[in-house]
Amino acid sequence: MELDPDDVFRDEEDDEFYEERDATKELLVYIVDASPKMFSTTSPAEHEEEVSHFEVAINCIAQCLRTQIVNRSYDEVAICFYNTREKKNLQDLNCVYVFNVQERDDLDRPTAKLIREFDLIKERFNKQIGSKYGIEPGSRDNSLYNAIWAAQALLRKGKWLLYHFRSAKTADKRILIFTNEDDPFGCIKGATKIDMMRTTLQRAKDARDLGISIELLPLSKPDEEFNVSVFYATEKFLICGDTGTLIQEQPKRFQLYKNDTIMFSADELSELKRVSAVHLHLLGFKPLSCLKDYHNLRPSTFVFPSDEEAIGSTRIFIALHKSMTQLKRFALAFYGNSSQSRLVALIAQDEITTSRGQIEPPGMHMIFLPYSDDIRHIEELHADSESLPHATDEQIKAASALLKRIDLKDFSVCQFSNPGKMRNPLDIIFVH
Fold this sequence. Notes:
Subcellular location: Nucleus
Keywords: ATP-binding, DNA damage, DNA recombination, DNA repair, DNA-binding, Helicase, Hydrolase, Nucleotide-binding, Nucleus
GO molecular function: ATP binding; double-stranded DNA binding; helicase activity; hydrolase activity; telomeric DNA binding
Pfam family, one: Ku_N
CATH architecture of the domain at 26-218: 3-Layer(aba) Sandwich
Organism: Cuscuta australis
Radius of gyration: 33 Å
CATH superfamily of the domain at 26-218: von Willebrand factor, type A domain
Helix content: 25-40%
Shape: elongated
């Protein structure tokens, strides 16, 4: 039986180390477009020489492998080419070639031998693997679909040791696609193109449902940008559940009203749900007597003006603050983003100073208010009010005495220093 030296010489005290390392383990499959277009298109390199997009992708992967074998040697990686003449993969799919070396699984830790052989791939590629267009008119081959399928199969066959099993479900699984073709189905027309696009998008969706993230690394031409909206911006493509065809436009929603169908676009629905266009929207003013103690939903926030972003805001704030103090009113406002705002109450606070300096700063306390359904009454839990537990007179008297004993008179937060900001631990002794 073959033994793993890491497992044989591992102490039980190292379990915590292994668990922490496995929690960040990554399974990665590089997918490289090997079509003739990748070899014919060039970009200027740092040394002013022209290199093909295929060489750019190979150099990038080679550098990542060298970094990974030093810094993240326990991550597993696979390299897959598509639009190839030869085929080599688990499913025997056309136009897909999984590059590997002997004594190593297709998805495994990077080795020195893998890096050495991969450095020679540019010279050997045409002879050993070859390049061709895998998506052509009159052919049902879909090289991009096959490449994603092969990568998905590799990620599902990840190699795990016994002590890796617990973290296998939480491993980060990724697919990186290198290509300079923003329209892989551009040469196909009609229903065949729609069907191939639909099946490819569905294959990508299946991979995402399995927890696999797919990332595109587009390679642009010097005089032409890679247009992701042609195909790879999949959020613009929707699949009809009845016909299976692609929907180019965003669907609309409807509401029946008096036998009429009222249509709404996504933008119109977003506008209807918009509460406010700003983060703090003033609604009006109410007497302070309307504000109850139980209206405080969570810890409040203290706000004050600043002229850095809006000149004159301090002057307006002072006028509003003075009026609210004199009239004993608080401001009612919406606070938050455009669709999830909270009701808040703004209560003005005067500045309090002594001979020692400022005790309380001027400004406003922003108290988060509950909505009507946020308040629950105790009586609702009991159908019969007579069955409610009642405290005896002695218990009430004892509770009242307790409250009087712990009452803090003339309390101020300035009476207590923040121990976290004290440089000398001995200063804690002199806190009043």
